[in-house]
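TA notes, week 10

Several of you asked for a full example with nothing omitted. So below is the full record: structure tokens for the whole chain, then the designed sequence directly under it. When grading your own attempts, check the secondary structure regions first.
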């Protein structure tokens, strides 16, 4: 008891304890905020990797579409439902998708 009381009375220990309390709970950059920032940074890095992969895929597709007319026609037909003048296009929607839309 006497030892604990002497530690509390010591101004250096008191300053050190106050500093740690301030850094743990009261400061703008406390440990909880730092943990949240690290989690956010991790998520942003995952997103960055995903978008880099997507950019590579899109560049490959653009190169392929600009060099091969057959691929360009296939892309236009599948993605934008384009057709030639003498054709008819029928879009078949599965029943599961119709139920989800309603």
């Amino acid at each position: 008891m006497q030892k604990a009381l002497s530690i509390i009375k010591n101004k250096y220990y008191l300053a050190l304890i106050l500093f740690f309390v301030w850094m743990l709970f009261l400061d703008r950059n406390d440990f909880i905020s730092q943990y949240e920032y690290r989690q956010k940074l991790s998520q942003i890095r995952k997103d960055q990797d995903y978008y880099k992969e997507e950019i590579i895929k899109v560049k490959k597709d653009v190169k392929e579409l600009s060099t091969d007319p057959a691929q360009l026609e296939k892309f236009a037909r599948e993605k934008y439902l384009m057709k030639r003048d003498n054709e008819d296009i029928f879009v078949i929607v599965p029943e599961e998708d119709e139920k989800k839309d309603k």
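The two ends are 73 Å apart (CA to CA). Use that as a sanity check on your answer.
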